[in-house]
Every structure is written in structure tokens, then in C-alpha cells.
Amino acid sequence: MKVLEGEPENCDNTGGADRAELHAFHARIRSVASRSSLLLAGIAILMALRSPLLGLDLAIGGICGIVNMLLIVRNNERLLAGRRSRGVYGLNNVVRVVGIGVLPAVAGITGPPWALAVSYAGFFAPLASYAIGLRSANRRGP
Fold first, then answer.
1. Which 3-state string (H, E, C) describes 82-138?
2. Burial (CB count <10 Å: 0-12, 13-18, 19+), residue 2
3. pTM for the structure as a whole
4. Measured by CB atoms within 10 angstroms of the end CB, which terminus of the chain is less buried, N or C?
5. How does residue 19 score in pLDDT terms, banded at 50, 70 and 90?
6. What are the backbone dihedrals phi and psi of residue 57, each rounded to the nearest 5 degrees, phi first?
7. 114-124 confidence digits (pLDDT tens)
């Protein structure tokens, strides 16, 4: 059996088609963040006209949801690039969920009973928007 000597092959996933897909992915993330911000801001303003506290709850939930989405993407990219161990990855996710996920709950508890639902609707809106956008992009194909 022959053994090849030299440096191991670099398994870099940033070549050709992968770069185009990565660029499309980052463009989709930016698009989802901006669309979610605009949509949630508009709904929060309309909701604040009726109940200022509910409008604030939706806005806080939306901001936390967008930050959560961006932190998920960053943490996953670092893990896949090999710049983060699985232990640090898991710890980062726990800290993110506790730190970011508790803010909409606190905001929702301060108002009427349905305020928690409004706050978490804002929190999960960016992730739902991303899922819907990804589904339609996959249906269109390359």
C-alpha cells in the first residue's frame, strides 16, 4: 500500500458554488432581518395606538427575535468552520436562550394575560419569516 506524503488536503467549503450559496444565505438573513424589523415596527406602532404596553411588548419581542436569529447564525457558522468546540457551542446556546429568550417573557408578564403571546409572537416572527423565505427559495430552485 502506498502512502502519500505531504500536507493534508484542505477541506475548505468556500470555493466556487459554495461561495455563491453562502452569499445567498447571508443576503437572505439580511433580508429577513430588515423585513421583520419593518413589519414588526409597523404592527407595533399600530398596536401601540390601541395599547402602548402591547406595542412595546411586540417591539421588545421582535428586537430580541432578530438578535436571537443573528446569534444562531453566527454560532452555527463558527461551529461548522471549526472555530468553536461543541461544548462552547452548547454553552453559548444556553446563554443565548436564557439571556435573549427571557426578555420577551419579562416584557409579557408585565401586561395583560395575552401580552406574553404578543411578545413571543414578535420573538418568533423573524425565524418564521426565514423559514417561509427558505421554503419558497427551495421551491424556485437554483
1. CCCCHHHHHHHHHHHHHHHHHHHHHHHHCCCCCHHHHHHHHHHHHHHHHHHHHHHHH
2. exposed
3. 0.77
4. N
5. confident
6. -60, -45
7. 888 898 899 99
CB 70 within 8 A of CB 36: no
> Are 40 and 62 within 8 A, CB to CB?
yes
Quote the cell numbers at residue 132.
417561509
Instruction: Output 68 or 24, whichever has higher pLDDT.
Output: 68
Taking Cα atoms as reference points, which of 44, 29, 22 lies closest to residue 119? 44
DSSP string, 24-82: HHHHHHHHHHHHHHHHHHHHHHHHHHH-HHHHHHHHHHHHHHHHHHHHHHHHHHHHHTT
For residue 15, give the C-alpha cell.
470555493
